[in-house]
Amino acid sequence: MSISAQDVNKLRTMTGAGMMDCKKALTEANGDFEEAITILRKKGQKVSANRADRTTTEGAVHIHLNSDATEGVVIALGCETDFVGKNEDFLNLGRELLALAVAQKPADKDALHALTIKNLSVADYITEYVGKIGEKIEVTNYEVLKAEKVISYLHSNNKVGVLVGFSGVGSNDITEVGKDVAMQIAAMKPVALDKEGVDASILEREIEIGKEQARQEGKPEAMLEKIAMGKLNKFYEDFTLLNQKFVKDNGVTIRQLLENTQKGLTSTGFFRISIG
Hints:
Elements: H1 5-15, H2 19-28, H3 33-50, E1 58-65, E2 71-79, H4 82-85, H5 88-104, H6 109-114, E3 116-117, E4 120-121, H7 122-133, E5 138-146, E6 149-154, E7 160-167, H8 175-188, H9 200-216, H10 224-239, E8 245-246, E9 249-253, H11 254-261, E10 266-274
Antiparallel strand pairs: 1-2, 2-5, 3-4, 6-7, 7-10, 8-9
Helix pairs in contact: 1-2, 2-3, 3-7, 9-10
């Protein structure tokens, strides 16, 4: 049957798919719009499957703070190319998913994918976008942080986002120091808040590295464990937030910076989310 340009444009408006894809779908569906939409969705699912092994090294981070800055939500939506990462449709998808997460508060990324948006699961909704855009799209990170005060930072390229929580704030304005700490996290990439928060597997790796370094230096085998444990202090200084030197003043640690700003002020946790 003959498919009119008007029908093609109507389907394109309904789905956001390309003109040729819409024409092919309508032709295959004999002009039935619902069937054509199903065909386009199947095409999206096929594209998604075909690109499952691709890496999403581009994309954008989206952040939301509630009105009293006691809760922050961050989502990272990944794609394959910088061109798509800057596409307004792709950015709008990230904003839609962020708004849904803020409203529904899913427990984790899997729960987010199971939520419903426009009569589809989030997973299927993303699949439809894969069909339209033609490359892999995925939620790479999703986190929620609650604290007495939450400060956020989003880098200018939208590829690095930070949420950091504070306690001991009281009625004081900690915006300036909070931003400094958030930017420190973005730049220095701490792996934990303090010594106690470092994952055991990371500590095991660092101890083994310390032992091997000492061994290469010719230290006695009986001394390797002690030497490696001593090297952990340098690791804590470099990779735990409260023990890091403040990048704007190496004379103080982040712990000291906060205490000097206001007695009892400290950080209770953070998330650093990045693309790529």
